UniProtKB/TrEMBL annotation:
<keyword id="KW-0808">Transferase</keyword>
<feature type="domain" description="Aminotransferase class V">
    <location>
        <begin position="49"/>
        <end position="431"/>
    </location>
</feature>
<dbReference type="GO" id="GO:0030170">
    <property type="term" value="F:pyridoxal phosphate binding"/>
</dbReference>
<dbReference type="GO" id="GO:0016829">
    <property type="term" value="F:lyase activity"/>
</dbReference>
<comment type="similarity">
    <text>Belongs to the class-V pyridoxal-phosphate-dependent aminotransferase family. Csd subfamily.</text>
</comment>
<dbReference type="InterPro" id="IPR015424">
    <property type="entry name" value="PyrdxlP-dep_Trfase"/>
</dbReference>
<feature type="compositionally biased region" description="Polar residues">
    <location>
        <begin position="1"/>
        <end position="10"/>
    </location>
</feature>
<dbReference type="InterPro" id="IPR015421">
    <property type="entry name" value="PyrdxlP-dep_Trfase_major"/>
</dbReference>
<dbReference type="InterPro" id="IPR000192">
    <property type="entry name" value="Aminotrans_V_dom"/>
</dbReference>
<dbReference type="InterPro" id="IPR020578">
    <property type="entry name" value="Aminotrans_V_PyrdxlP_BS"/>
</dbReference>
<keyword id="KW-0456">Lyase</keyword>
<dbReference type="InterPro" id="IPR010970">
    <property type="entry name" value="Cys_dSase_SufS"/>
</dbReference>
<dbReference type="InterPro" id="IPR015422">
    <property type="entry name" value="PyrdxlP-dep_Trfase_small"/>
</dbReference>
<dbReference type="GO" id="GO:0006534">
    <property type="term" value="P:cysteine metabolic process"/>
</dbReference>
<comment type="function">
    <text>Catalyzes the removal of elemental sulfur and selenium atoms from L-cysteine, L-cystine, L-selenocysteine, and L-selenocystine to produce L-alanine.</text>
</comment>
<keyword id="KW-0663">Pyridoxal phosphate</keyword>
<dbReference type="Pfam" id="PF00266">
    <property type="entry name" value="Aminotran_5"/>
</dbReference>
Length: 446
């Protein structure tokens, strides 16, 4: 199988590169698998083959131990007490922010903790909505939207990067437009140049499609936005876990990602925002821990990121996410990306050999994420998934929270296999061999 090195357009994450280390091999991956207890079990009488990391990744022992150690030794409210445990909890919480920020090339005060990427996008949408109501004063007017303004997304967006902008448009009177997708599952960049126009105030798009595996040309899209003075929001859920990402080098204004897709726990994510933008944004959630002065009629708010972190925070999850970042950094994100690119090409090549199986997205030789979504002619995706599960192979079935994209590609649902640093070539080959048995089992002639 062809091995694809990381693209030079994918800027290296700070502290995540190990050029002195050799590329990952199956032997290395087998060692990595020893750090993931969940992978060493049988499902329906077969060894588990976990190919659903695009939805949720598994956790190494070090991540689980980091969260457990916090609860055993340092459990306390952060930013609220002067006693020893509170100080230690706060130090661990903020050290985690520093580590995660460095992982994506951001400043520490440019990372806002969220429950997940979906919350991060909603935080932005509601902050802009509040600015549109006049909250935040003159500084926040740059985020105000109204009739005549346009929000641009793409036809390949996850619902999390579509519905919040739909709702923002409804609340403000702005118009939502989208960049269409071509038949091969990539963006129509010629159309994009027309869609992003003088009325565009915001461009929001995914870095990597969770359906087609397409890695979008961030530089080209950012250039379109900069040409008209629009803000850029990047959904990096499928890229921060899998390839080197430097938000400063990409020059996006905001970016979101989720911990549970990058070896971390559920319930934690991050919103990156340029410091000067966060400083001008009005808050979305309000309450304790995000204020300076309060009286019975008004309040003044802290500087970012605390301005956007009302209430008791996700302390143990943030600390565990930092442990996940350590694991990925020590492995080397360039190595992770190169290995998954190899697995992705192996998937694409193998799928091309199975009659009646249609790959959604670019074909062999095009750089892609290490995932593949397919339609098996004559067999519903849920039946495909059940057949694979009976063989111990875990995949995702359905529309993957991307109904418009599936509709554009002419299907209602698909079966997706998504790899990570703990998957081997043998597992990919077993998936392909088992998928080839689906149509014969259901009596469908291809």
């Amino acid at each position: 199988m062809t091995s694809f090195a990381p693209s030079s357009a994918l800027s290296p994450a700070h502290g995540a590169q190990h050029p002195e280390l050799a590329p990952l091999t199956n032997i290395d991956v087998e060692r990595i698998r020893n750090d993931f207890p969940v992978l060493h079990q049988t499902v329906n009488g077969h060894p588990l083959v976990y190919l659903d990391s695009g939805a949720t990744s598994q956790n190494p022992i070090s991540v689980m131990e980091a969260e457990q150690e916090y609860y055993e030794q340092r459990n306390a409210a952060v930013h609220r007490g002067a006693h020893t445990l509170a100080v230690e909890a706060t130090e661990g919480f903020e050290a985690a922010r520093e580590k995660v920020a460095a992982f994506v090339g951001a400043q520490t005060d440019e990372i806002v903790w969220t429950s997940n990427a979906t919350e991060g996008i909603n935080l932005l949408a509601y902050s802009f909505s509040n600015a549109s109501l006049g909250l935040g004063g003159p500084a926040a007017r740059r985020f105000s939207l109204g009739a005549g303004d346009e929000i641009v997304v793409t036809e390949m967006e996850h619902h999390a990067n579509l519905i919040p902008w739909q709702q923002l448009a409804l609340r403000t009177g702005a118009t939502l437009r989208f960049i269409p997708v071509l038949d091969d599952g990539t963006l129509d960049l010629l159309a994009a140049a027309d869609v992003v126009g003088p009325h565009t105030r915001l461009l929001a798009f995914t870095h990597g499609s969770n359906v087609t595996g397409t890695i979008n040309p961030v530089a080209e899209l950012v250039a379109l936005a900069r040409r008209v003075g629009a803000l850029v929001v990047l959904d990096a859920c499928q890229t921060v876990p899998h390839l080197p990402v430097d938000v400063k080098a990409l020059d996006v204004d905001f970016a979101v990602f989720s911990g549970h897709k990058m070896l971390g726990p559920t319930g934690i994510g991050a919103l990156y925002g340029k410091a000067e933008l966060l400083a001008d944004m009005p808050p979305f959630l309000t309450g304790g821990s995000m204020i300076t002065t309060v009286d019975m009629t008004q309040a003044e708010f802290l500087a970012p990121p605390q301005r956007f972190e009302a209430g008791t925070q996700r302390i143990s999850q943030a600390i565990a996410l930092a442990a996940a970042v350590d694991y990925l950094s020590e492995t080397g994100m360039d190595r992770v990306h190169a290995w998954e690119a190899q697995l992705g090409q192996r998937l694409v090549a193998g799928l091309a050999e199975i009659p009646g199986v249609r790959l959604l997205g670019p074909g062999l030789g095009v750089e892609r994420l290490g995932l593949a979504a397919v339609d098996v002619a004559g067999v519903h995706a849920h039946d495909v998934g059940q057949f694979l599960d009976d063989a111990g192979i875990a995949v995702r079935v359905g529309h993957h929270c991307a109904q418009p994209l599936h509709r554009r590609l002419g299907v209602t649902a698909s079966t997706r296999a998504s790899t990570y640093l703990y998957n081997t070539t043998d597992e990919v080959d077993l998936f392909l061999a088992t998928l080839a048995e689906v149509a014969p089992f259901f009596g469908v002639k291809q």
